[in-house]
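REQUEST ID: PR-0412
SUBMITTED BY: lab tech R.K.
PRIORITY: routine
TASK: structure prediction, single protein chain
INPUT:
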Amino acid sequence: MKLNAVKAIAVAVAAFGTLAAAPAHAGKTLDAIKARGQVICGVHTGLAGFSAADSNGKWTGIDVDVCRAVAAATLGDAEKVKYVPLVAQARFTALQSGEVDVLSRNTTFTLTRDASLGLSQTAVVYYDGQGFMVPVKSKIKSAKQLKGQTVCVQSGTTTEKNLTDFSKANNLGIKPVVFEKLDAVEGAYFSGRCVAYTTDASGLASVRNKSAKNPADHLILPELISKEPLGPLVRRGDDEWAAIVKWTVYGLLEAEEAGITQANVDDLKVNTKDPAIGRMLGTTEDTGKLLGLDKEWLARAVKATGNYGEIFERNVGPKSALQLPRGLNNLWTKGGIQYAPPIR
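STATUS: complete
OUTPUT:
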């Protein structure tokens, strides 16, 4: 190869590297959010541990904390969020139409949703699976014992299709009893109209804790019949906004792995000698400029919500009302499958 050609390639590579490290444009969604001073977040109408409002209108849950972390990263204040409660049938339309900026509503990532709705999947917040709940008095111990039985299920969800697939694959002849609204599904199950109730296992735990007269009277069967990776979605066409939401979730995971907590984040900003922690907190490098944010975007998110482990424990973990095990949602270093790409 001639010397001039080699030099040309070297210049091109150097130029590409410079472009790759250049600050990102904020993107149209972030511009709109900054102009209004608020992130509009689509959430569940009421699913304890994920997104639910108390009698004072205060929202809590894993999905709510994702919204709060994004607001802290982008606007500097975790309270600058408007929550829009959405039923399952309306959630995608609300995001497509621009009614909400992000859908953080225990929603499963699937090929169909990724490829046909004009939406982008970001990062998995909770690895779940569909299960069944039955009254203890039914004596049912396995989902395979539901042959010919009625099962309450919500329409417009992956749950409905999974139930049909499970029934056909195992020749069970299950009879779905379908309702549009979650309250109707719960009411039908607890009134005895159905032998079983099916949804994500985390949702079953939430419903049992919230709505059962005596939670001990209801058993969540051991089988999971599907994979349900849950996480926030955004509209397709704004890659900058998708990156912000995705890396906020990744950042909360990276913070847990690095030992950055809500309590020590301020101290670490000043005293850490770990280059990786300095990079995450914006003291040694500015990763925020690559997202159209400032250098302390992640430090603010962790300060507002805690790291991923703290969010999990507070909302659904063994010490919460739901008492769910960490399981698959543990870090990869602790036997789970939560694994975030590195912030570097």
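NOTES: The radius of gyration is 22 Å.
REVIEWED BY: pending
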